Amino acid sequence: MKPFEYVRAASTASALDEVAHRPNSKFLGGGTNLVDLMRENIEQPDALVDITRLPFSEIREREDGGLSLGAGARNTAVASHPVVRARYPMLSEAILCGASGQIRNMATVGGNLMQRTRCFYFYDEAARCNKRQPGAGCDAIEGFNRIHAILGASDACIATHPSDMCVALAALDATVQVSGPQGERTMPFLEFHRLPGDTPHIETELKPGELITSVELPPLDAAGSRYRKIRDRSSYAFALVSVAAAVSIRDGIVADVRLALGGVAHKPWRALEAERLLRHAPASLEHLRFAVDAELAAAKSFVHNHFKIELAKRAVVSVLGGLMGLESAR
Amino acid sequence: MTPRVPDAAEPQGTAAAQSKIHDSLALPLSLRVNGARRELRLDPRTSLLDALRDHLQLSGTKKGCDQGACGACTVLVNGQRVLSCLSLALQHEGDDVTTIEGLVNDEAGHVLQAGFIEADGFQCGYCTPGQICSAVGMLHEFGQGVPSAVTPIASLSATTLNDEELKERMSGNLCRCGAYVGICDAIRTAHERLGRQAR
Q1: Which CATH fold topology does A5-53 show?
Q2: Element (H, E) at B123
Q3: pTM
């Protein structure tokens, strides 16, 4: 690991100030991803500003019926919170499907948003990777790409975003609250992460020196919501495909629907086209299959991940069909 | 041959200059380990795992993968199980750390140790300190009502620690010998005994 300067921030203002005055510095939350990446020499910051002592870990009910998740709240605390279990079950399920008990006790909300891809070639210093070294090329495209993207990829990068929690946040229309040198701002969660394009090394819309302070959840008006993760072993593995979904049915018609996919793209993939086709349509298997086919019409596979297209379709039909109470969906 | 004495003018990049840089970056750390206050001065790169093993000579905590994949380095920080390889020691200023050595006086740790011996919950034993520390933390989480991925979503927490719950909650601890049947038996037995003692 490259030597770095370590600073423990006493307040939000001082954390922002410390990072602003140190080139190539990073905020340190739980550390479960950043420490590993630094040990592998993938991340080489000159300074770390430890923000784990800042008062960001509160989970608070909002006046509008929503919920505010402090950026420093640990994964276990969010997944166990009675309001999350009762009103945002897909979020609790998504978090509990990720990592292990030990990691969830350390990992934070903010750190989960900042997780970097688990692409083998990103982690391998001997491989070419445009994300690690812009302009170097991508060894995944011609390489072993079973875990890679089928939606929104580019010629520069076919990596996927590894988070489960973020897939639920995408479906829940969350917003991200950040503080920075220019003050505070709010951005829609769906605009927080970027598709790779020709700059896969820029993964979020955070500006230099900005710090995530909370994730805000609006009220969810849906009878049922679910997160389902499909992976190579039944626990402690990253998703091949995952689905976060919620639906409200009135008189056999889809009144509202939320759908997001994980493991398929450079960012959590909100299935807006499928949602558009399903909203106000009859809650039937036929409409469900039509909508998911449309969503995945643009999917592009590589040598080893063609199976993901059909897997994603079946996973959506199973989860949404289950929530709609369609018997034959399973 | 004259011993080489590094001086201030030595160009950077040599081993001596590097070690000087590291010394200048070393920072104090005060934490409680197994009940005793410990004061250290550490290179910021030192993981909690390396601080325990190399600076406090507590070699019971094992380094398996050193990348968060195996669980061998599991310790308890303020009563919660964490991976000591994935956090920097300096993150733990003021924290209360318990390692396998510290569980000698812990009731759950003691019952689990006996359970592992009875159920033959190991072969080589390398993963065992991590398994036991993880199981202590896991049983505490279960008692506190922390749900798992297999807990029915309609309920706030799991009511019984059945095999499905046990395996899911312990999935962060790998055993390359494959002693999982014994490990599950050991934890199940310990959980039952601790429950009886509590009643």
Answers
A1: 3.30.43
A2: none
A3: 0.94
The token pair at A141 is 């495209």
pLDDT at A149 over 90: yes
Of A3, A6, A101, the CB nearest to B90: A6
d(CA A225, CA A93): 10
What is the ipTM for the molecules in this complex? 0.96
Contact A105 B86 (CB under 8 A): no
Domain ranges of chain A: 5-53, 224-324
Q: Is A44 on the interface with B (CB under 8 A)?
A: no
Domain boundary among B99, B121, B155: B99
Mean pLDDT of chain B: 90
Number of domains in chain B: 2
Percent of chain B exceeding pLDDT 70 equals 87
Mean pLDDT of B88-105: 97
Would you state the pLDDT for residue B197?
A: 81
Residue A118 with chain B: CB contacts under 8 Å: none
Interface check A272 vs B, CB under 8 A:
no
**Minimal Cβ distance to B149: which of A4, A85, A97:** A97
CA distance A264 to A149: 5
The CATH number, out of the four listed (3.30.450.40, 3.40.50.300, 3.30.505.50, 3.30.390.50), of the domain defined by the range A224-324:
3.30.390.50
Please give the angle made by the CA atoms of A228, A221 and A56, to the nearest 5 degrees: 75
Q: Which A residues, 65 through 104, put their C-beta within 8 Å of a C-beta on chain B? A: 76, 79-80, 82, 85-86, 89, 92-93, 96-97, 99-103
List, as one string, the DSSP characters of A45-91.
Answer: -SEEEE-TTSS---EEE-TTS-EEEETT-BHHHHHH-HHHHHH-HHH
- Average pLDDT for B33-48: 98
Domain containing residue B161: CATH number:
1.10.150.120
Same structural domain, B79 and B120: no
Is B146 a member of any domain? yes
Mutation target vs B (from A27, A42, A102; most B CBs, 10 A cutoff): A102
Q: Are A205 and A218 in contact (CB under 8 A)?
A: no
Tell me the average pLDDT across B119-137: 98
Residues B135 and B114 in one domain: yes
pLDDT of B49 reads 98
Q: Is residue B10 part of a domain?
A: no
Of A280, A170, A281, A297, nearest in space to A225 by CA: A170
Q: Could you list the residue range(s) of the whole structural domain that residue B92 is in?
A: 27-99
The verdict on B151 touching A (C-beta cutoff 8 Å) is yes
